[in-house]
Write a structure and sequence with these properties.
Length: about 200
């Protein structure tokens, strides 16, 4: 059974979808939910589920990213996870942090990578006049949102879509895609999964 540490920055809807799927015959179990924000709603939810949780507030560290990441790694490593799952974790991680978990860290991104790495993905898709959008689960590498793609799910861009309506439709697919990719990855499958 693989142990998964899940990193969040907010309400943790993707974390909740992952945890909900990690029952029965799933090859993973959550061993930690950690956040960089003490106000993250997902932390209270994780505690209510009996999942170990930790908060390492990034703000007191200022520009000392290494100091923040050292403190975060201490919390993660104390639970001895096999996998690190970024689920709405809104901090860019340094190459040193990523190297520590190389080949064991996944992320979900709200675009069809390689299109639109970084922020404001829905606005960028709308501005470009794209006819479809979606989400991607990928391995985390030192290059932002550029690691090997493990799965994608697509949605049509509809006439009259706003950032909010497009984001909401994509989020439904994120909650399908991430658990499905994790299940395969934890079993050693590295092939790409594409959902409609």
């Amino acid at each position: 059974m693989k142990r998964a540490a899940i990193l969040i920055s907010g309400g943790g809807s993707n974390m909740k979808a992952l945890v909900a799927d990690m029952g029965g015959d799933h090859p993973c179990r959550p061993c930690l939910v950690a956040s960089n924000d003490p106000a993250a709603g997902g932390i209270a939810w994780a505690k209510a589920q009996g999942i170990a949780s930790a908060v390492v507030d990034h703000r007191p560290f200022g520009r000392d990213r290494a100091g923040f990441e050292t403190a975060l790694r201490a919390q993660i490593d104390a639970t001895a996870p096999d996998l690190i799952l970024l689920a709405g974790f809104m901090r860019i991680l340094t190459p040193d942090f990523i190297r520590a978990y190389e080949g064991r860290m996944l992320n979900i991104h709200p675009s069809l990578l390689p299109k639109y790495p970084g922020l404001h993905t829905h606005a960028r898709a709308l501005e470009a006049g794209d006819t479809e959008a979606g989400c991607t689960v990928h391995e985390v590498t030192a290059d932002l949102d550029a690691g090997p793609i493990l799965g994608q799910a697509r949605v049509p861009v509809l006439a009259g879509d706003t950032e909010a309506t497009l984001a909401a439709r994509i989020l439904v697919q994120e909650h399908r895609l991430y658990p499905a990719v994790l299940r395969r990855f934890a079993q050693g499958e590295r092939g790409r999964l594409d959902l409609g």
